[in-house]
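Protein in question quoted for reference:
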Amino acid sequence: MTFVTKPFLPPFKEIQHLLERIWESGTLSNSGPLHEELEAKLSDFLGVSHVSLFCNATIALMAAQKVLDVQGEVITTPYSFVATSHVIGWMQNRPVFVDVEPDSLCMDPGKIEAAITENTSAIMPLHCYGNTCDVERIADVAERYNLKVIYDACHSFGVEDDGGSALRHGDISVVSFHATKVFNTFEGGLLVSHSKEVKTRVDHFKNFGFVDEVTVIEAGINGKMSEFNAAVGILQLQYFEDVLRRRAAADELYRELLSPLTGIRCLEPVRQKKRNYSYLPIFVESPYPLSRDALYALLQEKGVYGRRYFYPLITDFPMYSDLPSATHLNLPVAAAASQSVICLPLYPDLPQAEIRRICEIIRSAT
């Protein structure tokens, strides 16, 4: 069976010396030496100054709202993993959904202003599949209405636009290091902020609000990354450029083989100068003879397990479907994408022969 992704794992023997360092230090958590080393390496690698490691990106998105004092309505996208909206509710805020752009599947900045009310406090867009949002237009709206911008950049590790890292935008950006991502620490996440003061508050919040042994300044949470996860990240970073090269080769072969097929369209990169090849989404459209779901089933019959990222829309789930902004009429582009996209298998170890077989299955239905 071929699944939509397979986590990259460095050679097992190479983790041993890092594990020995953990055993020697006796520090397993609480910002140990490997945690501090990974933060420094990621800051340098990504070209961003203030980074905070987390146990996962979900907790980091919660922390972002807390430290920015986000209260009320948060304008967000329906076309994402459910965590993007769940974190808003967990912080006692309310998601308001706006549609996405048809070319990037990122939030449509032209839809934001109409969704703003006196209760709006922030905007939480997603850099979808590594495509970068129209950050200038989003920043313009945010500035005019005094709104915070928190980017769900969970797909965007290593992505750059014309000005540098995609993670430099907004008030805060959050990246996922989950096992399915292009850079993983098994579980983990990263919060990027723009000042020492914000980083300090983030770091206090993720450690129960502790400043020192006897001082707690707020009701924080346990969002710390362990030394083991940091060790995995240090080792993964050494291989990232090779991982990127291999993912790029797989992406290129898919696009070459699928380009002649009428009704099968690959999502194009938008506003990316450096890509991370995190996903390979295809649109299944007329006149392709099978529906998206029929092709999805055919692939599974052949042992190929793609994913309908993102289906259903977040707004179709019962905890959101009754919200006024959740109707498909309000979200036509997102709704159409949800019904037509399949993400095909893409990972560094995916053999070229398997890519050819997958594309032949898709071609065989024409």
About this structure: The radius of gyration is 21 Å.
